[in-house]
Amino acid sequence: MPLHLEPGDGPPSFPDLLAAAGYRAMAAALRLGVFGALVNGPLPAPELAAELDVDPRGAGLLAEALVAFGYLEHVDGGYANTEPTRRWLSGPGYRDVDQFWAAVLFESWDGLEESLRTGRPALDFYGWLAARPETLHRFQGMLSGLADTTGAEVAGLVPVGASVLDLGGGHAKYAIRLCAEHPALRATVVDLPDALEVGRRAVDDAGLADRITLRAGDYDEIDLGADHDAVLLFNVVHGRGAAANRVLLGRVAAALRPGGVVALLELDEHAEDPSAEAFARVFSLNLFHGQGGQVYGAAEIGEWLAGAGFADTTTHPLRSAPGQSLTIARKR
Ligand SMILES: C[S@@+](CC[C@H](N)C(=O)[O-])C[C@H]1O[C@@H](n2cnc3c(N)ncnc32)[C@H](O)[C@@H]1O
Fold first, then answer.
1. Are residues 210 and 120 in the same domain?
2. From CA 293, how far away is CA 324, in angstroms rounded?
3. 143 Cβ inside 6 Å of ligand 1
4. Pick from 24, 195, 54: which is nearest to 125 by CA?
5. Which residues span the domain enclosing 319?
6. 199 and 66 share one domain
7. Are residues 86 and 35 in the same domain?
8. Which of 121, 197, 286, 312 would give a disulfide with 330, using CB separation of 3.0 to 4.6 Å?
């Protein structure tokens, strides 16, 4: 029976104590392979423990906690995955999202108070990721999956011309989609070396290595070239401070031909749905802690764009990814 919490008169932190502990127990189950071990049928605790090579008493206690939180259920023959666990967590896919967020919350948030005291990120998020290849792979995989969902809609909105530059394009899915739809287009994807390894595989698999250049480097430092028709900055500005974004948008403007466009994909600052709003707030705090960024509002992004010499700024909420919007502006 899944745990159901009603707001009551008790301490306001108690539901969060349970939620944090439940998420941590679920993360341990994912790391140990509990849900995968139950895919072929229920197991009693001693057999589950033997399968996972863990302590039998600990396996039983973990399984009981997972029952309390609705991940497992008691059946004849021991413990079984509940239906939502079977659907979401027993195979690849959403499991990677939880493993990524568990690493962020239970490892990287250790220094959160330091970021808050100093106003500077206590963590170098991309260095932290580079030191954890599995987590980096999951991070790029999540973004790549999102690009699979939004790619068609985004490609229909960005006027790319003949040359597109994708800054922080990592997994390269947007460049691949655009090149597939525009046979004369050439794309350059700039990202840090570890992220580009993911992109390189995707570009090779798509047979587009002759039209997509993968360029390892820091987009704040390297020469971005000139006369591009479009520059993509997808999920980039939220990972930086406002001053750094103004400078980067100035560099982007210099790399575009007059009339060329910059396109920014970002999470909306606020959401109507309370869960989506809470996620946006947690996401924003995490960006502040790990990267010195935050989720920015459309008005502030619009100001930076105008200051960098862009006009005709339009924002398109994405049907394929509610809560995300594509902002497009033209170089004057
Ligand atoms: C949040 S991800 C967005 C990936 C992709 N644009 C998307 O929207 O799916 C940000 C990307 O920027 C890259 N990145 C961060 N700092 C960078 C820097 N200084 N120079 C180049 N790439 C950077 C990261 O490696 C990562 O792939």
1. yes
2. 17
3. yes
4. 195
5. 110-331
6. no
7. yes
8. 312
**Site to substitute for ligand 1 among 128, 158, 191, 221, most atoms within 8 A of C-beta:** 191
How large is the angle between the packed helices 14-32 and 94-106, nearest 10 degrees?
Answer: 120
Contacts 24+ apart (CB under 8 A), 295-298: 295/238, 295/266, 295/267, 295/268, 295/269, 296/237, 296/238, 296/242, 296/245, 296/266, 296/269, 297/269, 298/268, 298/269, 298/325, 298/327
- CA 44 / ligand 1 centre spacing (Å): 45
* Strand, coil or helix: 4: coil
Ligand 1 pocket check for 168: Cβ under 6 Å: yes
pLDDT digits (tens, 9 = 90+) for 130-188: 999 999 999 999 999 999 999 999 999 999 999 999 999 999 999 999 999 999 999 99
Total domains in the fold of the chain: 2
Asked whether 136 lines ligand 1 (CB < 6 A), one says no
Backbone angles phi, psi at 258, to 5 degrees: -60, 135
Cβ–Cβ < 8 Å for 96, 30: no
Structure tokens that stand for 18 in this block: 């349970």
CA of 4 to the centre of ligand 1 (A): 38
Global model pTM greater than 0.85: yes
Q: Whose CA is nearest to atom 13 of ligand 1?
A: 168
Per-residue pLDDT tens over the stretch 51-106: 999 999 999 999 999 999 999 999 999 999 999 999 999 988 899 999 999 999 99
Whether 187 is covered by a domain: the verdict is: yes
Question: How far separated are the first and last CA of the chain, in Å rounded?
Answer: 60
Q: What CATH number corresponds to the domain at position 228?
A: 3.40.50.150
Q: Annotate 155-201 with DSSP letters as a single string.
A: HHH---TTEEEEET-TT-HHHHHHHHH-TT-EEEEEE-HHHHHHHHH
- 69: CATH: 1.10.10.10
Tell whether ligand 1 has an atom less than 6 A from the beta carbon of residue 290: no
